[in-house]
C-alpha cells in the first residue's frame, strides 16, 4: 500500500513539474511547425538561407563605403544595421549624416577580425565578394551567415540591389532603384549612340601620399573605364593597363597618349585645386588637352562621382555632358543631384541645399 502511495505522489509531482516548466503558448500547432526563411543567391552564386529576416546586420571590410551607401537606399537599413566599419572618405561621412542613430552603432576597423564582428551579435554580415576567403570564411566558421555582393560595375548594381532587396525584405524598393539607374543609363546611351566620333579620353587618379605625387589609370574592368565607354568616349589607356588595380603612369606616357580630354580624380583633396596646379605647371602646359581647355576636375560631393559608389550615375551623366555637350544642351547637374538624393535616400531639397550642395567639388556649378 505504501508503495502505491509513493508511486501516486511521484506521478503527481512529475506532472506538476511538467506544467510549470512548459511555456504556455496560444500559437496553433500547425503554425509552430512553419519556419519562415529567406533564400538568397549572393554574388558568388552561393545559396544562403536565413531562418528569419535579419535584424542585426554588420557591414565591414575594405571599400565598405560603396556597400554601405547601397544598403542605406533601403529605409530599413538605419534600424537593422548595428555595426559598420569606417564610412569616411577624406573628411566626409555620408552615413553619419543620414542615420540619426549612427553614433550608437558598433564601429569596426576595416581589418576587424571575426571575434570583433561576432561581439556585435550579428545575424548577418554583408561583405564584398573579394573578401570571402580572408574575412568571410572565419566569420562563417563561427556560425554567422555572410552574404557577398560586389557593387563594382553598372551591371552588378542590378544584381546586387536585388540581393539587398531580399535581405531587407523590400524587393519593391530594389526594383524602383534599379529602374532609376537603368533609365538614366539608357538616356545616356540613346543620346550618344548616334555620335560619329568618340573623343579620346584620359582618366587620371591623383594621389600625394607621403608627399609623393603620382598619377594613375584604372583597370579596364573598373567603373572609371566603364563610365568613359558608356558616356561615349574612348579610353586611351585601354591597351596599356593589364593590372588589377590603379597603375602609375609618367608624364611622358600621358603626353604620348595625347588625349582630347583629361579628367582628374582626387579622393582626399579637391580635384579643382589639382587642376589649377597642373594648368600652371610648365610641364603640363605642353599637353594638347590643356592648350585647348580640356582638362577637367572630376566632380564630387561628400564622395567622388567616379567610383563604384551609388553616385556613379551622377558621374556618368556629368561625363557624357562634358564629352558631348551638343547632345545635352539643357543639362543641369544641380537638378540631377537633387533627383538622385530624393530618389535614392528620400532627402528633400532643403536637406540637399544645406548638407549636400555646399560639398560640391570639381567642375560643378
Keywords, separated by commas or semicolons:
six-stranded mixed sheet; alpha/beta; Rossmann fold; 2 domains; 17 helices; five-stranded parallel sheet; disordered N terminus; 365 residues; 43% helix; single chain; globular
Descriptive account of the structure:
The chain is an alpha/beta fold and 365 residues long. The chain is built from 17 helices and 15 strands. Strands 10, 11, 12, 13, 14 and 15 form a six-stranded mixed sheet that branches.
User: How much strand content do the residues show?
Assistant: 15-25%
CATH architecture name of the largest domain: 3-Layer(aba) Sandwich
- Cα(first) to Cα(last) distance is 101 Å
CATH superfamily of the largest domain: Nitrogenase molybdenum iron protein domain
Cα shape: globular
Quick rundown:
This protein is of the alpha/beta class and 365 residues long. The protein is built from 17 helices and 15 strands.
Task: Describe how the helices and strands are arranged.
Layout: H1 2-21, H2 29-32, E1 38-41, E2 47-50, E3 57-59, H3 64-71, H4 77-80, E4 81-84, E5 88-89, E6 92-93, H5 94-98, E7 106-107, H6 114-118, E8 124-128, H7 132-141, E9 146-149, H8 154-167, H9 171-192, E10 200-207, E11 214-217, H10 223-230, E12 234-235, E13 247-249, H11 251-257, E14 261-265, H12 271-279, H13 282-285, H14 288-291, E15 295-297, H15 312-323, H16 333-345, H17 349-356
Parallel strand pairs: 3-4, 3-8, 4-7, 8-9, 10-12, 10-14, 14-15
Antiparallel strand pairs: 1-2, 5-6, 10-11, 11-13
Helix pairs in contact: 8-9, 9-15, 10-15
